[in-house]
Model the fold of this input.
Amino acid sequence: MKTFLIRFTGVAALMLILNSVSFAQFSLGLQGGIAKSDLEDSKTIAGGGVNLRVFASPNFAIGVAGKIYSDGTDYTVAGQTLSYTGNLVPVTGTLDYYFGTGFIRPYIGGDAGVYFSKYDAKFNGDKIAESKKHSNFGAAPRAGVIFALNDNLGLQVEGIYHFIFGNKDNSANAGNVGNADFESTKQFGGVNVGLIIGLGGKK
Done:
């Protein structure tokens, strides 16, 4: 009897996995957007990214995403130019839940992963300073809507708010998750628009 139950459970689990795999649909997203820190007098910066998702069901998707936000400032005095450039690159896992499978598809989602940052400074075009690459853990809740143009193509508009956590040991690298300092947090919000290739749709 025990052997029968083990076999039955194994067969049932296999059927469930095959059913999920048979439905799974891949989705590729390309985004561009703007973001702004919560600090007073902060600049609005531009960014963009790409994401790959797998729909495990018509309404639920998991995936990975990479984005880049860039900021730069030039200071010119007496014909001499000092330039500063900084990049922030979040590399995250993603979860999304869609409230519908029609033309208009509202959704909520979230990102969590590691945020990499680096900057350099140039004087009259020559690099004079460059930071080490820093990494911090971070997370970002999202909410938006997809307009499904057809079964495989959609336009996306979303709002996103990033939380970047400090490192408890004050080092440049995030290390393990236990090193995340949730009391030392940088925040910035943004708006993204994008093109989605491959939609969950109906089973």
User: Anything to note?
Assistant: Helices lie at 2-23.
